[in-house]
Specification:
Blueprint lengths: L1 H17 L12 H8 L3 H13 L3 E2 L7 E2 L6 E3 L10 E5 L3 E2 L2 H7 L6 E10 L5 E9 L8 E10 L2 H7 L6 E10 L5 E10 L3 E3 L4
Parallel strand pairs: 3-11
Antiparallel strand pairs: 1-2, 4-6, 5-6, 6-7, 7-10, 8-9, 9-10
Helix pairs in contact: 1-3, 2-3
Length: 204
Amino acid sequence: MVEARHRRIAADITRRIKAGHWRTGEQIPSRPMLAVEYDVHEQTIRLAVTLLRSRGILEGEARRRLFVAHPPAMRTMTAPDAEWPYGSETTDTRQMRATAELAGRLGVDIGTSLRRETVECLDPGGRSAMLVTSWWRGQRTQHATAVVEVGVVPLGEPQAHALGLTVDTVAYRLVRTRLDASGNALETADLILPLDRWLLRFDM
């Protein structure tokens, strides 16, 4: 069976990495070369590679070179409203109209013009650790407090690409809404955190 074969190949590649056959950050053979080595169709290797990328063992985009992944740094988040202490890159600042979900979160009418900002938060080594997309109306103003809801979400293509993961990988989704002193929503945001890089522990 193809499924059993690609899982066996993934397990063997993992074993070889742990045995030091390939070191962290080292390029491994191409997909065609692996297909020849394992005497399988290249599609079987692609399935094995997809599995290994989803587990954080390999990194590299489709049709690109493959490398042994650096172990992701596990970080603890205790304050989802705190400023990010490391580097970051703003990747999207387009305005948009409020969807039904955003309208409900911000207490505005559907179709209201909103400002949007997506920020890729980097760890101290310069690797992507979290994506934060924020929406607000008008000018940003100082907030008094914030509320956070925690769930999970499968990654879409842009998110997966930014985080170096595969599409549909499940990640934490923190919905953070910043409020004024009267409890009115000023800004709402989605914080997307890879499950394998984060532990959530909130101070209450």
